[in-house]
Amino acid sequence: xxxxxxxxxxxxxxxxxxxxxxxxxxxxxxxxxxxxxxxxxxxxxxxxxxxxxxxxxxxxxxxxxxxxxxxxxxxxxxxxxxxxxxxxxxxxxxxxxxxxxxxxxxxxxxxxxxxxxxxxxxxxxxxxxxxxxxxxxxxxxxxxxxxxxxxxxxxxxxxxxxxxxxxxxxxxxxxxxxxxxxxxxxxxxxxxxxxxxxxxxxxxxxxxxxxxxxxxxxxx
Length: 220
Fold this sequence. Notes:
Distance between the termini: 54 Å
Shape: elongated
Radius of gyration: 23 Å
Helix content: 55-70%
């Protein structure tokens, strides 16, 4: 290999290293910036509140799991798709150590309990609005569906009332969920079944987040 070839190889290696470290630095900057970008005034929850809310969220998880086992909403539906809300709960509530493309980014102070809980409340507001609007659409089994969803709505209301970061206990949903529903009961049950699966998946994420918050690890 002549001198020119060696120089070219060296330049390529340097460029690759610069790109790697630049990517890591950019990922760190974006993570920190995202975590601190929300300046919404909220109240703090005490350790006792965290424990109480963890129990309420577990009740919600069990309730939604029970709904999915009931054939009222998913009877005759073969699709296994799930629809999640458009919140950033999964990212906001992730532990403060992440790995992306070989870059280990340790930002111990980046986990924001408030941001996590704020996104959780946005989730609950969204699904509450979805369930309420569904009950106003054409239903296959009105009495049974109403009874089941009203129970779930009651659990959601309890969580939002006791665990919300807003002083008035309200976190509104800005989405127009009425556009989801059609004029026939099968199409509505299909969408509701997908919503239920998505909600169940999200309640698992929420319960993991609450377990992490209740442990106090993020405050160490």
